[in-house]
Specification:
Elements: E1 2-6, H1 10-18, E2 24-26, H2 29-35, H3 44-57, E3 62-65, H4 71-82, E4 88-93, H5 96-107, E5 112-117, H6 120-128, E6 133-136, H7 138-143, H8 148-162, E7 167-170, H9 176-185, E8 189-192, H10 194-200, H11 204-222
Parallel strand pairs: 1-2, 1-8, 2-3, 3-4, 4-5, 5-6, 6-7, 7-8
Helix pairs in contact: 4-5, 6-8, 8-9
Bound molecules: SN-glycerol-3-phosphate.
């Protein structure tokens, strides 16, 4: 199972990368907006430069999302984003226009992450359009009292049935149990917020056990 970090924050990306467990990064316009310090003067060129900085930190796929709604514009922007670095994966929304753009871009060798996926039918379309990744948003489904992980199970089953090469990238992860469930289902990738990556290693018995070991280690030092 691969771990991506779901953030545009360079410090978070560096810190997670230093842990040695990071395989890639996903961003979206909302995550980028969070880290922009001067929104009045943040340009598209600044956005691309920021994606380039992420690619310099992490040696793995970096999802950068298109910011237009029409297929033709998504194609132009997707080609532009893909030119930033070999590791850039272009994120397109699962809309009619997005699907057209995905098909065109993937047919031209650009890797696609199909985003804002909330149903198995959308996931089938993403695979047929040649997306490299499909991103079911589990937390946002949970938010509306729909079991997000049930969608992940369905997508994994469907892709297995037809040996679709599209990888299942579980997104909108909110807590460690989402990561465990994604792993049990056999999802290919989990994209995880920085805070949740930290939560993955915490266990109270580790803390109390270590405290005891450190106390008892005093004996060794004396000896
Ligand atoms: O990767 C998509 C993810 O960022 C969405 O997360 O928490 O905004 O639903 P969230």
């Amino acid at each position: 199972m691969r771990f991506f970090i779901d953030t545009a924050d360079l410090e978070e990306i560096k810190a997670a990368n230093d842990l040695g467990v990071l395989d890639g990064v996903t961003t979206n316009p909302s995550l980028v907006a969070k880290i922009v310090q001067d929104p009045e003067n943040f340009t598209y060129e600044d956005f691309k430069a920021h994606i380039a900085k992420i690619c310099d930190i992490v040696d793995g796929p970096v999802s950068a999302e298109v910011t237009t709604l029409l297929a033709e514009e998504m194609i132009v922007q997707g080609e532009d984003l893909a030119a930033i670095h070999d590791n850039v994966v272009v994120k397109c929304p699962l809309t009619l226009e997005g699907l057209k753009a995905m098909h065109h871009l993937s047919a031209n060798g650009i890797r696609i992450n199909a985003t804002l996926v909330f149903s198995p039918t959308q996931a089938i379309l993403a695979a047929k359009a040649g997306a490299s990744y499909v991103s079911p948003f589990v937390g946002r489904l949970d938010d509306i009292s729909t079991e997000g992980m049930a969608l992940v199970e369905q997508i994994v089953d469907i892709y297995d049935n037809y040996r679709f090469p599209t990888e299942v990238l579980v997104a909108s992860i909110r807590h460690p149990q989402h990561v465990v469930d994604a792993a049990l289902i056999g999802a290919d990738v989990a994209t995880i917020p920085f805070k949740v990556i930290g939560q993955l290693l915490k266990h109270p018995l580790t803390d109390t056990g270590l405290e005891r070991f450190m106390k008892d280690a005093a004996v060794i030092k004396k000896g």
